[in-house]
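Quick start: what a row looks like.
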Amino acid sequence: MATNLSAYFQQRRLVLGLRPGEVVRRMGYKSIVGTTNKVVLFEERGDIRPDLFDKLKAAFEIDDATVVRLIEEDRREFVERWNQWANQPIEPHLVVRAIPGVYMEQEIPHSLSSEIAEGVKTPEAMEQYAADFAKQFGKKVWLVLSRRLTIFFDENGTKRQVIEAAPGEMNGPYMQIGGCKQKFLFTGGMGMRPLTEPEECGPQ
């Protein structure tokens, strides 16, 4: 997704009548194919390495004040998108550390037994279930109540931490493979569930 910053740079290039490859030559590169692709991706998605961004900014003679203003606009819009995403309801669930570095999503039963079928989805009942689960299996457990709030229990079932998410920071554990950005959890049957959240783009 293009950002205010990347759209400004693209507009600047178009006003100057330059193709992406010509911009890369302005930046001092002789081998242009790889860098040209990075410039095009920046215009389309907003992501770019800081060193490459600095050269691009110099090639277009864009001042720091303009860059700061556009980054602040993008940050405000990102926080607004994140808050809208975080306010959407989810089904509460557990995340269990199966072994170090491996995390599995575990559903919370709607009814644990006939005696406690009513009210099992109350926060208190879910906390008790998470604590009992952690103690029974000797596993670290995260009770994910919402996209904003998670409660962590140690292997003894002791409530250790209440974690509140913030823009750009998830409120529970996840896994990634290699240099891939995609975050995920294992599910029952060793399936995989991608974890999606609004991303902040720009020179990072």
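That is the whole record. Strands lie at 93-99, 102-107, 141-144, 149-153, 159-164, 183-186, 192-195. The chain has two domains: 4-86, 93-195.
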